[in-house]
Amino acid sequence: MSNQPNERVRYQGVDYSLIDSVSGLNPGAWAGARPLACGEGELVSTSPADGLPLGRVDRPGEAACEEAIRAAADAFAIWRTVPAPVRGRVVRRIGERLREEQDALGALISLEMGKIYSEGKGEVQSMIDTCDYAAGFSRDLFGLTMASERPGHRMMEQYQPLGPIGVISSFNFPAAVWAWNAMFAAVCGDTVVWKPASAVPLTAIAVQRIAGEVLQEFDMPEGVFTLVAGGPAAGDAIVEDPRIRLISFTGSTNVGHGVAKKASGRFCRTVLELGGNNAAIVTPAMDPAVAIPALVFGAVGTTGQRCTSTRRVIVHESIFERVADAMVDAYGKLRAGHPFEQGVHYGPLVYESVCDDYQAAVQRAVDEGGKLLCGGDRLPELGPCYVAPAIVAATADMPCTQEELFGPLVYLIPYKGNVEDAIELQNGVRQGLASAIFTEDLREVETFVSAVGSDCGIANVNLGTAGAEIGAAFGGEKESGFGRELKAGRRTCVARR
Fold this sequence. Notes:
This protein is an alpha/beta fold and 497 residues long. The protein has 2 domains: 17-143 and 156-273, Aldehyde Dehydrogenase, Chain A, domain 1 (3-Layer(aba) Sandwich); 278-495, Aldehyde Dehydrogenase, Chain A, domain 2 (3-Layer(aba) Sandwich). The chain has 14 helices and 23 strands. The strands form 5 sheets. An 8-stranded mixed β-sheet has the order 3-2-10-9-8-11-12-22, with helices on both faces. An 8-stranded mixed β-sheet has the order 15-16-17-14-13-19-20-23, sandwiched between helices. Strands 1-5-4 form a 3-stranded mixed β-sheet, with helices on one face. Helix 3 (84-100) packs antiparallel against helix 5 (117-137), helix 5 runs parallel beside helix 6 (176-187) and helix 10 (288-300) packs across helix 11. It is globular. Residues 488-497 have low confidence and may be disordered.
């Protein structure tokens, strides 16, 4: 039985101001700081950390979605004429407000989504860093001047604003994904319509209020940032509206297929950040002091609910038992608990149904021939959404290793031969988001990051798969989507040491 309290426990050292501000009924649609009329029924946001309601959202209907999109389109006509450095100052001010609210917003993120408090505040720091980077980018929108074959002429290439863009974000990073897209769109002269995940509407509303207040402070059009915190119909309204010129979608591959199909039907541009089945290669030349902590965090951080979480660890057969024992030992020292508790390493999964899926995936791995090394159980004494992270010794031919699971399940897969053989196993899945290699052998590193190496959008060296770096391109290949957030370019390659 669960020990869930009837009344929320308050932890010392946590800023509850934003949590309290959204504890009642909140409008689900906004244009800047102005709430829009909704009235399509209430959505209750419940914290997976304690099972208690956080607040309610008045869901937007068709009329509210139309008003939000229209406000964004109207604002674009003005916003695109604002000098880019001035737009950058607006973005910089948003970053300053986020600094002021970092503890409070981090607490709201943690309680509504379930990630530990340090990760919640870290997500806000990512937003702050994005604002700083985008503000600088507002003075870096260079074009080219080229020689012309026509006498007395020259050619000029320059950037122009695209139009209103739609941002459809996921639950696991309920605020940062918006910032990664919206701040760069804003400095480029585009307006933004945001549809957050249904699991985390209160975080989106809190962020929208901050952005809206900054727009008021600068006397800018309210439609530069708009929000529709609704269900699938709100997402469809954004994807299908011809006024929206680009869709940035973060979510599952299956839903991404639908978004891409609808958007392509009207020749709308898309950035798709989809699922990952991320692998870390561990060669005999690895440094265990570097590899083991990175592997553990990659698999367990955010309770395995990152698109970049480590799903497969491909280990040379000569060190397989050594790595397996080290990871099992490290897992035994991990502590689950409420995100606000001191010394907790991971919190709950986002929904109780996700726990069911997680346990089913663990059982499937065992049924297919895998060996459960540790974990996989529910932790009902903590609440209905808590589980123990699992490690399964597996082989690359097991069907379960070909699929992504959002949860703290990692497969340890042995390989024979050289690094090329490990890379072949890594690349032998439909997904291609994040990858990593742990080795002190420079030749193995160079092979991994070369054209014949990792086929993923992100290739890390002596760093885990999980995470993003502001200023480095973020995105995947194959069924992990296409397009890049944070910076242009095909691949992010990050090296440690």
